[in-house]
Amino acid sequence: MSNTAQRFNPAQLDFAKFKPEHFLWQVEGQVATITLNRPERKNPLTFESYAELRDTFRNLTYADGIKAIVINGAGENFCSGGDVHEIIGPLVEMQRKDDMPGLLAFTRMTGDLVKAMRACPQPIVSAIDGICAGAGAILAMASDLRYGTARSKVAFLFVRVGLAGADMGACNMLPRIIGAGRAAELLYTGRAMDGAEAERWGFYNRVCEPGAVVTEAQSLAASLAEGPTFAHAMTKRCIHQEWSMGIDDSIEAEAQAQAICMQTRDYERAYLAFVSKQRPKFEGN
What we know:
The structure is a single chain. By secondary structure, this protein is of the alpha/beta class. The chain folds into 2 domains: about 5-225, 2-enoyl-CoA Hydratase, Chain A, domain 1; about 230-275. The protein contains 12 helices and 9 strands. The strands form 2 sheets. It has a 6-stranded mixed sheet, sandwiched between helices. Helix 6 (about 170-180) packs across helix 7 and helix 10 runs antiparallel to helix 11. The radius of gyration is 20 Å and the shape is globular.
């Protein structure tokens, strides 16, 4: 075992005192809220905020006290994507210098953020208002659940800047959420869908009033945090892993997953609560 592995102690990760540099962080009960906080620019991402979000979601694997996560944007917008001046400009300069290794390092780093979001065990709920474009739409897509507003605009607009719609897993994940034909339309055209269409197509789980979308997303996250969170983590893992499985392999994987969940105290707690006609109080173990 390496010295780094020997020194690592997950208990040292105190997310109640976590102070990120590139977004806001709030913990209430067992729910953490991430707020992208550049409202004057519609909350775009930078190289640094990409990396800090990636590292945060990686570390959340070890955050036993946090059971669900909410992502939202400050002001009246979710996220306008990569910052034109701080990301797009430097990437164009790399292109001019034929810096393929640098370009690939960036695209892999942004993809690592999605991998980290899918790998962290906590359910992630996005609260989406206003502009949700480019990488912002990817953040929403990579979340487990999405609450939006009627006035919001979701756009996978990579094609509008001369890029493929194949970005950060969009060609894999988006068709599974809204269907292949609908995903193809959005990825080929880069057009925006409003909240009503996003809900009708299954991208949004619910449309809320602008002043209530974050609160309702946090309420949903809190209800998930009070549930059997070990089982929630298992559900999330199975949803992710079974995308590449056939039905027989999926059934076997779920048989194993459910047998593991049946060994938890939460399973016993649910049974005893049912017998005594009470509401179960889950503890995540």
